[in-house]
Amino acid sequence: MSDLRLTVLGSATPYPSADNPCSGYLVTSGDTRIWMDAGTGTLGPLQRHTRLDELDAIWISHLHADHSADLLTAYYGLLYADLKLRAPIPLFGPPGIADRLAGFLTNGPTRSPIEAAFAVTELSDGHSTVVGSVRLTARAVEHGLPAFAVRVESGSSLVYSGDTAPCAALTELADGCDVLLCEADGADPAHHTPEQAGVSAAGAGRLIVTHVGPGITPAEAVARAGTRYEGPVEYAEAGATYTM
């Protein structure tokens, strides 16, 4: 029996609502803890479940602020607050992520010590790594800038789309997975509609729609995805936890 768990820290886009931060998730398996996307407002609810310095890794799908902005305040927490960081936290993200963070965080002639907080690994198509009891496999997807989906495996399997248009890489990655966590932002060429999320989930055992744009309600997104997908469909409500 797998103990792979997904906790939704937030799922709003493109900015947080009063009760829902932007995209961010905590993936756990046994003692392994991975913060998957660090969108605006997700650092707060993350701490209901784990301290920053207890994370085994952080995984970032792409560098839009609604998926990565809370890395900035996490940096201050790790280096300049009450935490005692034993070693930099492994940070997996798109090419250029360290320089992007430094660009925001450097306030003088000396570059901020990003690498003292984060041990950065740049993702590439097909990148695979093991973090604790979890294997992470990335595929490059189509979002108009470097962006990655990820397959998380620890007995059972979870695939997270990040932000992407429907593409073969995501369909292949999700084939045979237990759960597909798929964005459903709306009719934009760089995103999925709910119906397209249903199509992308064809090979998955369950679909959870997330990153639902403000133009439709979560209930509408679930219903629309269900017109193209025969399995169970749920909405990634902030605070919800799913066991694979």
TrEMBL record:
Which Gene3D superfamilies did the record assign? Ribonuclease Z/Hydroxyacylglutathione hydrolase-like
Which InterPro entries does the UniProt entry name for this protein? Metallo-B-lactamas, RibonucZ/Hydroxyglut_hydro
**UniProt xrefs under CDD domains:** RNaseZ_short-form-like_MBL-fold
In what residue span(s) does the Metallo-beta-lactamase domain sit?
Answer: 21-216
Q: Which residues form a coiled coil?
A: none
Transmembrane spans: none
The molecule here is called MBL fold metallo-hydrolase
> Which source organism?
Kribbella karoonensis
